[in-house]
């Protein structure tokens, strides 16, 4: 069940989000240990070198002042060099030059390493996300709350890789600040305290606004998904046809504008408040800096510090202020983004419920007795009504069973239960006498070939579209061609300019779109790709003309001889081919029998059959 995430409200909870940082750093480390180590080492260099430079600067000034005090005649440069009085200062300048080069090189290398690491991490985390998503139950996918969370998790891995630079930048700044503080404490400890106290209001302010920003984003996730959806509707090829014909442009644009404006207004209010308070708090920091500055000038004039000390102290204070400001801003940004890590890691923690048992039973190569539904009931999460209730049904191995019934009668649900996409809410389903839940899930699914009514039109090549049925055999062109011939897709592919290599769909350059019926033939070829024991066609032929559907099913029947087959169709010319027919109504079995028996019975089936037959007369 999707757990409702509470929004972090209190200060502790906000800072508490930082607890995900170690897990985040572990994830970054796992993405690339080498790049992560390099990045941290370079940051360390970048933190320490500036302090060393400031100190060498101080030594230079002191040396120069000392030299300037010693009287010297009207010397030329060569006299200075020969006297040896330039040697000390010269060495110091050379040292500072070397440090400057190290600072420059480590800065450049560090941006290079960080950009490589950010991309590696983003790819790594995306793969983890896809793997996790693949392991989830269909039901967990279908809840809108879960979709919201997935959406936030996805944004976390794609849009928020800056977190990486931020966290490492923080580490660098902390190291830099600590080095400076150690140096400054040696001179005048109380000034550092002044600076730290002055920055406290900014810290608290930033934390507060971050939590507000996150809450805004959190509560806006459903709206943002709506916004993305409306944007997609208004600007994609899949919808262009209906948008034009129904004249939906203005309607969609208006809807987009309405959502977007509310979100913009809320964001603007927050950003303005943040800028105001942030500016006010920052003024405290600046004030502290100037107080410290004045104090240092005074003590230098009083003779407590040398001019070199003064430049070092003033330079260090300025740098420390910059670092602390940066740390503060960075900290609040890190804390803000860490709140989103909650989404990513809580997504990683969702446990699928439809899983293999600890000691799974292997599925036999060929099914012996078949499936038995025992008092099976299923209710979709959040639904009031049962989609299926008290269903007892036997599907003997090798039988061709047809399911008929009005829209919403429960046909697709039954198929999903059979393929163990869901587990029954009540009762159980047996395969060869054992509960489906006892079997190895992957093996079970690999034995079942389903073509759904809403099959996916993959914008891949024609060959790949068929190979979807058994993706491990994507390189086996012979099998793909055979599957295509069996589903009557072969003739369609032969007409494509690039044949099996033809990209399908218009999403990418060079793609060719197919008609609905042509797509269906391609989708049916997927069922032939699988060496499945159980074949299920859930109305994938609705776009085929009556003749084509008859032909497709005829072949399907012949080619799947000996296999357990389930057909769902609203066309009785097809349904009558089945060995056994089940009429579902409101999730229960209303009638069952052969075509002849059901017609002779004069019940619901006969009524529906008569209605359709009359339409053709
Ligand atoms: N994902 C879902 N979440 C909630 N309810 C659902 C979901 N899918 C189907 N239902 C409901 O379950 C019931 C059975 O639906 P099902 O899709 O099994 O019907 P069907 O017989 O296949 O219909 P059709 O002929 O229209 O394909 C319907 O009342 C439907 O509204």
TrEMBL record:
Quote a single Gene Ontology cellular component term.
plasma membrane
* PANTHER family per record: ATP-BINDING CASSETTE SUB-FAMILY B MEMBER 10, MITOCHONDRIAL, ATP-DEPENDENT PERMEASE MDL1, MITOCHONDRIAL
What organism is the protein native to? Answer: Chelatococcus daeguensis
Q: Which SUPFAM superfamilies match?
A: ABC transporter transmembrane region (SSF90123), P-loop containing nucleoside triphosphate hydrolases (SSF52540)
Name the record gives this protein = ABC transporter ATP-binding protein
The protein's matches in InterPro entries, at most eight in alphabetical order, are given as: AAA+_ATPase, ABC1_TM_dom, ABC1_TM_sf, ABC_transporter-like_ATP-bd, ABC_transporter-like_CS, P-loop_NTPase, Type_1_exporter
Is Zinc there in the keyword field? Answer: no
ATP-binding: is it a keyword of this entry? yes
List, in alphabetical order, the Gene Ontology terms for molecular function in this entry.
ABC-type oligopeptide transporter activity; ATP binding; ATP hydrolysis activity
Ranges of residues in domain ABC transporter: 371-611
Annotated keywords: ATP-binding, Cell membrane, Membrane, Nucleotide-binding, Plasmid, Sugar transport, Transmembrane, Transmembrane helix, Transport
**ABC transmembrane type-1 domain location:** 38-336
Q: What is the lineage of its organism?
A: Bacteria, Pseudomonadati, Pseudomonadota, Alphaproteobacteria, Hyphomicrobiales
Question: Span of the secretion signal?
Answer: none
- The source's domain of life comes to Bacteria
For this protein, the parts annotated as crossing the membrane are 174-200, 275-298
Q: According to its UniProt record, which protein family does this protein belong to?
A: Belongs to the ABC transporter superfamily.
Protein topology in the membrane: Multi-pass membrane protein
